[in-house]
Write a structure and sequence with these properties.
The protein has 164 residues and is mainly α. It has helices at 25-49, 51-56, 61-77, 80-91, 98-112, 119-135, 156-163. It is rod-shaped.
Length: 164
């Protein structure tokens, strides 16, 4: 083959020049590197976007769901402010507003004389009373409005027992 080569042709070709059979090993290597690199960048991007959700797992369910929604909005809209808001919300422990409100509602229901019964039970009880009144022939408009109770005649001991 050396006798068919032109005298000005280089005798040694660098390895990155493809062979005459069409096999280009450098192209194949770069294709594999680019595909793997793209997959790794995508995995890193999704891992980075899941940081607020993983941090919010230790907080309550409502806060976790809010952080998850903000993370999804940031992922699909490419607005980084949503991701920053989700990250800040994941780091901050929201105060528990529900427990004091529940305690106040329970105390008020005890003061009202319902004994801490749920509102659904009270509504069912009111509906049953209305049904009984309609069956007895009385309508709600026939009844006189209830008068306020006179608390001045009750003894202080009775009033204290009502509040306990």
């Amino acid at each position: 083959m050396a006798e068919n080569m032109h005298e000005l042709a280089p005798h040694h070709l660098p390895p990155f020049i493809p062979a005459a059979d069409g096999g280009d090993w450098l192209f194949t290597v770069m294709l594999v590197v680019l595909i793997l690199g793209g997959i790794l960048v995508g995995v890193f991007y999704l891992h980075l976007h899941s940081i607020p959700e993983r941090l919010a797992h230790k907080h309550g369910r409502m806060q976790f769901e809010l952080v998850a929604v903000l993370g999804l909005l940031a992922l699909f809209t490419h607005n980084n402010i949503f991701w920053v808001a989700a990250l800040l919300l994941a780091f901050i422990q929201l105060p528990d507003f529900w427990t004091p409100l529940e305690s106040m509602a329970h105390s008020l229901s005890r003061l009202a004389g319902t004994g801490g019964v749920s509102s659904e039970t009270l509504v069912e009880h009111d509906l049953e009373q209305e049904d009984q009144e309609l069956e007895a022939g009385m309508s709600a408009s026939d009844e006189p409005p209830p008068t306020p109770a006179d608390h001045s005649t009750a003894s202080t001991a009775e009033q204290e027992n009502k509040h306990v």
